[in-house]
Amino acid sequence: xxxxxxxxxxxRTTETDRRYNTLNTDTMQWVSAIVALAGLGLVAYPFIFxxxxxxxxxxxxxxxxxxxxxxxNFVRLSRDRLASVGVASLTTLLGLWALVSPAVIQMGxxxxxxxxxxxxxxxxxxxAYNAYANSKADTPEHAPARA
Length: 147
Known about the structure:
The chain has helices spanning 8-19, 25-48, 53-78, 85-104, 110-136.
């Protein structure tokens, strides 16, 4: 007789393991860290460039919210858990708001408007990627998310 296992259950387990779309949480941690830093940039921009009071409030509140939400996902990913898709989606919406806010709010200077829009674009793009990648990952319940 042969020493190879003929148990169909053994083959099914490895086949099932290959079907899971595992996510490298180290990469996603970097994405969340960059988004958090972009949020801090939004907080700092009105104090670096000439800004109206409305622009100061807008960028400070939006940037703080982005920093806290991206930081939350960073902590989740550092604990080998998937990022929250809802939090990443909310961060995407805040990034889109930062992108269009210079057209809605008087910023005080063109440089502030440009940096706010650029920061919003970075936040929206990276957060959308974070939400998409984490929604597609379907790791087993008790297995770590790391690939």
